[in-house]
Write a structure and sequence with these properties.
Helices cover 34% and strands 20% of the residues. It is an alpha/beta fold and 462 residues long. The chain folds into three domains: 164 residues, P-loop containing nucleotide triphosphate hydrolases (Rossmann fold, 3-Layer(aba) Sandwich); 170 residues, Rossmann fold, CATH 3.40.50; 78 residues, GMP Synthetase, Chain A, domain 3 (2-Layer Sandwich), CATH 3.30.300.
């Protein structure tokens, strides 16, 4: 499969073109320059060719150690790995000195290149298209990524270059096995489908650094600045032979502090990833203990019904480790009683300490999230649990728990038949949930109960 890297200076429409070719709104698009910072990849189509698309940060002239300099280094790495480069310029702005400078850099890279003049939906772009010839990169492809104009011409230009790179196939429309129609979500329960693992947390707790350490390469942009990651980035990975799709996400601050539209879009993208994931690792900063925002993020994940693992990052900076672990365990029992016993794994993204234990906890959380328990086992458990602690009577009348069965997994959901569902207090449901989690090993798994009232065979309806 050909790899196409989309490059250019900031705000020329690279992410819009990426979304257009991918057929999905994967990358955040905003008028603010420099929204894209990390390298995003996805499969898409250019005409009849199935390709791997790479969206990149805007090319800027900057010092190597600065944020813009690190973004440029990530883009240059994407260019080096690409089969074909789509160099995008803004036709309405014309050719700028930055365009000329980076065109020379791309020419020296030796990669096959297609010059794309974007935003060509009006007459004001005609002068910019004419100027593009002066770059010496061949005839520019006139395009409007926002409106979908010029895609046929782009497909032809890419196909002409592709013929010089790879031998022709008998069926150019053939997709990879299992790719067509599967979508990003894949089939439910497919044995070879990767585990979807999201990494979430507050800004600057080390989420991207953690993923880079897991991957063993500097795949994601990191640094001391808070809020570097803006949109969610997915990376394919494998751990002990198990396919995993890792999702890096933007840091989530308290809602009251979020005012900018771009940050709201970033948080919205993170929420989408949480709903899409199967297991979520909530990263905590060990040097700042457990803040209220950490608990709110974990509660949000639990409410979405995802498997949860808490990663206590920066463990190498902690002096009183035993005391911190005890304090956090007690605080978790108070703040997150609905997921009592959630795994808390100390790690260091900088040194790699604890990462095998973290992935073991993720595997256990996924197994619990997909586990099914037989009806016979559940009803024996229910009888013993109720015998140990009866539900409180309501208005002088006993409440009887008659039957339980598992309605579904992912997350585990149980149908509980009760004589008077409205009379069961929340405290007793928490008792049942904790007892069920302990008896059948559901670590870090939110459990759901559906209360049902048995039918009365002596009523007219019966």
């Amino acid at each position: 499969m050909l790899t196409l890297a989309i490059v250019g200076r900031p705000n020329v429409g690279k992410s819009t073109l990426f979304n257009r070719l991918a057929g999905k709104r994967l990358a955040l698009v905003h008028d603010t320059p420099g929204v894209t910072r990390d390298r995003r990849e996805a499969e898409g189509r250019v005409g009849s060719l199935r390709v791997r698309l790479v969206d990149t940060a805007g090319l800027e002239e900057a010092e190597a150690g600065s944020l813009a300099g690190r973004m440029r280094a990530m883009t240059e790495s994407a260019v080096a790995e690409a089969d074909i480069v789509l160099f995008v310029i803004d036709a309405r702005a014309g050719v700028t000195p930055y365009d000329q400078h980076f065109a020379e850099i791309l020419r020296r890279s030796g990669r096959p290149l297609v010059l794309v003049t974007n935003k060509c939906e009006g007459r004001e772009a005609e002068a910019g298209v004419a100027e593009a010839f002066a770059l010496g990169l061949g005839t520019p492809v006139e395009l409007s990524a926002e409106h979908g104009l010029g895609l046929d011409e782009l497909a032809q230009a890419v196909a002409d270059l592709a013929e010089t790179l790879t031998p022709a196939t008998d069926d150019p429309d053939a997709a990879e096995p299992g790719a067509e129609g599967a979508g990003e979500d894949g089939e439910e329960g497919a044995p070879d489908r990767p585990l979807r693992l999201a990494i979430v947390g507050r800004p600057n707790v080390g989420k991207s650094t953690l993923i880079n350490r897991l991957l063993g390469e500097e795949r994601l942009l990191t640094g001391p600045e808070a809020g570097i990651t803006r949109d969610s980035i997915s990376v394919d990975w494998s751990w002990q032979g198990r396919a995993i799709k890792l999702y890096d996400t933007a840091g989530m601050r308290r809602r009251a502090r979020i005012s900018e539209t771009l940050e709201k879009m970033s948080v919205g993208d993170t929420l989408r990833v949480i709903r899409f994931a199967e297991v979520v690792v909530v990263v905590l900063d060990a040097t700042m203990a457990l803040e209220k925002q950490d608990a709110q993020i974990a509660e949000l994940v639990a409410n979405e019904g995802r498997g949860i693992v808490l990663a206590l990052n920066k463990w190498d900076l902690v002096e009183d480790r035993d005391g911190l672990r005890r304090a956090l365990t007690e605080r978790l029992d108070i703040l997150l009683p609905q997921i009592k016993g959630v795994p808390l794994v100390p790690v260091s993204a900088t040194t790699g300490t604890g990462l095998p234990r973290l992935m073991e906890a993720v595997t256990r959380a996924y197994e619990g999230w997909t586990r099914r328990v037989s009806t016979g086992q559940l009803n024996r458990w229910l009888a013993d649990t109720v015998a140990a602690h009866q539900p409180p009577a309501a208005q002088g009348r006993p409440v009887r728990l008659r039957y339980i069965t598992q309605a579904k997994a992912r997350p585990p959901t149980f149908a509980l038949f009760v004589s008077r569902p409205e009379a069961i207090p929340q405290s007793y449901m928490r008792y049942l949930s904790n007892a069920l989690r302990e008896s059948f090993d559901f670590p870090g798994t939110p459990l759901r109960f559906v209360m049902r009232k048995p039918k009365n065979p002596y009523t007219d309806e019966g």
